[in-house]
Amino acid sequence: xxxxxxVATAFTVGSxxxxxxxxxxxxxxxxxxxxxxxxxxxxxxxxxxxxxxxxHRWWKHHGMxxxxxxxxxxxxxxxxxxxxxxxxxVNPALVSWGTDGNANFTWRFPDRALNNYFRKAFWNIKFxxxxxxxxxxxTKYDLFHAHVFSFNRNGEKDFGMVFHAKEYPSxxxxxxxxxxxNTSHPSFPVRNILWIASLSQSFLIDSDNEATHPLMKxxxxxxxxxxxMDDYYNEVLKARTVDTLPFIAMGSRLGGLNYFTRPTxxxxxxxxxxxxxxxxxxxx
Length: 284
Known about the structure:
Elements: H1 9-12, H2 17-32, E1 39-41, E2 54-55, E3 60-61, H3 66-78, E4 84-85, H4 92-97, E5 107-108, H5 112-131, E6 145-153, E7 156-164, E8 192-196, E9 201-205, H6 227-239, H7 245-248, E10 251-260, H8 262-269, E11 280-283
Antiparallel strand pairs: 1-9, 2-3, 4-5, 6-7, 6-10, 7-8, 8-9, 10-11
């Protein structure tokens, strides 16, 4: 979503090797429990009650199984048959503002509990930010979207999302104005969050750690090559946007997840907040 005016398609072509290796290393660290140097782990997200027997190294959910949870996600993410088309139910202004808003249709899972799980994923990140001394707000400028992808690990299909918070800082040219924060905000370095389905957990990516910088720039972009390249390098790193392409390259691009609270819906649609009956979570 966050784009600088200087970015052109040619700038992202070939941005694979170092980016891809770093993305894979991050995934490996998360699964190996060694990601604390690159990330700030969040508390695992409790699965809907119907999924029982989900064992996690930090806590255990009681009640169907992790396998059932992953099967339901696969059915929804990988097949139109597992989706409910809600295009007519979601205000076009929300679809337009949301990530991947040019999709053919917006959708939700048929199971309300699964949709609520993804709503909780946003609140989990907000709480995680607070626990680590940071902040994220549910506004049209900040935390409202994630990019969904699939990947394979040990022969098993898994799913991930890259959330982008602090989406439209006031000191970068993004085409959106009015944000109450800029790139100097103390929470800006953790504006990128990785979620892994099989772990039911999110991780705040620490962009102050130089080891994560390849995730935020094309491989060809290096310092010391030319003055213009140095300037562009600094602009790209200033935005601190983790590129979703190396994660998508591990499997497939599955669109976006969007979450808008009642005040944000009112703001985007120009209606009275009292007329908004509930918040909206949907995929596109």
